[in-house]
Each structure stands twice: as C-alpha cells, then as structure tokens.
Amino acid sequence: MKDNKTVKALAWVVRTLLYLLQKFIQYTNRNTQVLASITGESYCKSAKMAIKFEFSHMKTVFILNTLGDFFLFLAKVFITVLCMAICYAICKYSDNPTMIFTPVLCTCGVTFCVAFYIIEILELTVDTIFMAFLYEDTFMLTERSRGVESFAPKILSKLLSDEGKTASEGRSEMVV
C-alpha cells in the first residue's frame, strides 16, 4: 500500500487542496477581522462581506496582493542585506577582525526575523486601508451620488477607478 503511486498522488492532491483551503481561510479571516473593526458588525456578517469583496474585486485583490507581497519581500531582503553589509564593515574595519562570519550571519538572521514581523504589520496596514476603500466604494455610493465627498485619497480613487467601473455591475448583489 505504501508503494502505490495512485495513493501517493491522491494524498498529494488532498494535501495541496487542504493547504490552499487553509491559505484562503487565513486570508479571509484577516479581512473579516478588518471589516468587523471597520463596520462594528458581527464576525459572521463581516466574513460574508469579506468574501463578497474578495470575489467581486478579484482582479484588484490579486494585483494588490501579488505586487504588495513582491515589494514587501524585496524590502525584507534589502533591510537584511543592508544590515549584513553594515555588520561586515564594522567587523572588517575594527581593531581585531579575527571573526567576521559568525557576527554577520547572526546579524543576518536576527535582522530578517525583525524585518519579517515589522513588514507583516505593514502588510496588515495595507490590507486594512484597501478593505476600508472597498467598503467605502461599495456601501457609500448613495452618499456620493448625493454629493458627499469620498474619504479616500484622490490617488487611490483614481488608481482603483478602472476596476470599480468593471465591478459596478456586481454592486447590487453586494448589499448584505
């Protein structure tokens, strides 16, 4: 039974599907908590809104998350390399440069860990701002049609206006 390739392939498929489900639930849970804090609604109602937001603005969510994750990863790497270079320079040009590798490696590890958690906070901030924009864009249409000014910065409104035009047909189903 251990050597059966069909069982191994089926186990791999199930494991992959469960991994994808876990990532979707984690992402939705974060957006649900953000929406619950924005709206003051219950967790279940906020989860329903978050899932509708994710599917109705799927293109924008994908682009924002992909580009955001890429640039945040580059920021982590840049911070780590910069601190590693500074530590190398300090160790190399000190009075007794006998040990360079160990301090640089330790600095690299600690710096990456600190940068990872700080950048995660930044990523949560970006997601919160994006969800607040989606909430305003979806549920405050009637206020804007009466002439009430949007709270979103003009640059953000302009950047996401093309996506908003394509998703305007789906807004009637968005009301929870």
TrEMBL record:
Key words, A-Z: Glycoprotein, Membrane, Transmembrane, Transmembrane helix
Gene Ontology, cellular component aspect: plasma membrane
InterPro entries assigned to the protein according to its UniProt record, in alphabetical order: Choline_transptr-like
Protein's membrane topology: Multi-pass membrane protein
GO molecular function, one term: transmembrane transporter activity
Descriptive protein name: Choline transporter-like protein
Localization per Swiss-Prot or TrEMBL: Cell membrane; Membrane
Keyword Glycoprotein: yes
Primary localization class, coarse: membrane
PANTHER family: CHOLINE TRANSPORTER-LIKE (SLC FAMILY 44), CHOLINE TRANSPORTER-LIKE 2
Statement: the UniProt record of this protein carries the keyword Transmembrane: yes
UniProt record similarity statement: Belongs to the CTL (choline transporter-like) family.
Function: Choline transporter.
Residues that span the membrane, as ranges: 70-91, 98-119
